[in-house]
Amino acid sequence: MDKAQSRQKSYANKRKRDLVFTIGDKVFLRVSPVKGVMRFGKRGKLSPRFIGPYEVLDRVGAVAYHLALPPELYFIHPVFHLSMLRKCISDSSQYREESNQHEPKIRELTEKRNSFKLLSEQCDGEAKCLRAELEVAWKEHANLVEQLNSAVYRENLAKEFETAKMEAKVVKVDADEMVDAYKADA
Question: Could you name the domain of life of the organism this protein comes from (predicted)?
Fold first, then answer.
């Protein structure tokens, strides 16, 4: 029994990491992969596993560290367990801050958000709106949408369709006459 226990202990100790960070070290912070928890950047499988690097300010207890987080992460408590940290080995100048990385995309999306007008909205479902269907007109093309929805445009479109249909009949008759004339000559 003692032999089996010692063998299992040696297997377990191979996976164990004895990390100790000193004040001033740079570390990455593990982002929780649990759904419903705040995400950093992309969603799903492409979301980052670690963010940072951040500087270690102080050691709290035997296995916890106080990190210098940026002001954008004010809602996160700055003390983390050792298992949530990964040592930054390479130069930190190659890493960009998360907030600066996504700032142009956010600005672009807000500009796009203000460039359309909501025409109508419908909800499918009984008590809750399970799926919303929105009819949207971009502000650059708002006049075009109003023109397409006007009654005058619809009448003109119907007239053009009727004339196109009549021209097709005329062409068909002419083609039939030509076939008959060809057969008579042969």
Answer: Eukaryota
